[in-house]
Amino acid sequence: MVTTVDRWTKTWHGKGVSDLNATAAALLGLLHDGPATGGQLVAEAEERFGTFFSVTRSQVYRELPALAKEGLVRLGKQGPRSSQQYVITAAGKRAFKSWLTSESGPDHLRSPLILRLVHSGSLTAKQRANLLDSARETYNQELDDAKAAAKAAPDPYAKAIAEFGQAHAKAALKLLDTVAAN
Predict the structure, then answer these.
(1) 93 within 8 A of 7, measured Cβ to Cβ
(2) Partner of 90 at 20 to 30 A CA spacing, among 46, 67, 140, 169?
(3) Domain 4-101: which topology?
């Protein structure tokens, strides 16, 4: 008898790289902590992954029905204002663990700042300066937040992730300085 996970494992793991997309994996990981609504998952993703992995509301609400259709999550209790909880299934836990242990492949950078810089030729000099100032303020705040997170980190993994956040913010600030100097 072929289970859903067996079927998914065969399609997900050609050449050892998981085809479970990162957003679906992020949601399954969050649901390991217990049932949650889409809105709760959006908020939790922002809190836990905000500095290194963005999850939009539309992505969450697109992924949840697909995960339910495949048996990786099931509907839980209905909440206030017709909100719907989702619960990870045993198949979802196995699929998530399989994703965790597969080759990660390369990261895919998705930076609104860099996208704006690519198109900044469409702006006036003053608008470009405002873009740089605003981005600098944002990344200085991210750097401060990452430093605080590293100090408060409960384990070496959380500390390493916070230090990655610091390095990312420093790299963005260096990019902004380089652009401003040219």
Answers:
(1) no
(2) 46
(3) Arc Repressor Mutant, subunit A (1.10.10)
Beta-bridge partner residues of 74: 87
7-31 pLDDT, tens digit per residue, is: 444 443 333 334 689 999 999 999 9
Give the pair of three-digit tokens for residue 146. Answer: 């990452």
Is the model more confident about 62 or about 7? Answer: 62
SS3 content of the chain, % helix, strand, coil (to 5): 70, 10, 25
Is 98 in contact with 13 (CB distance < 8 Å)? yes
pTM exceeding the 0.70 threshold for the entire prediction: yes
Provide the total of helices (H) and of strands (E) in the chain, helices listed first.
Answer: 8, 3
Q: Which two tokens stand for residue 122?
A: 């469409």
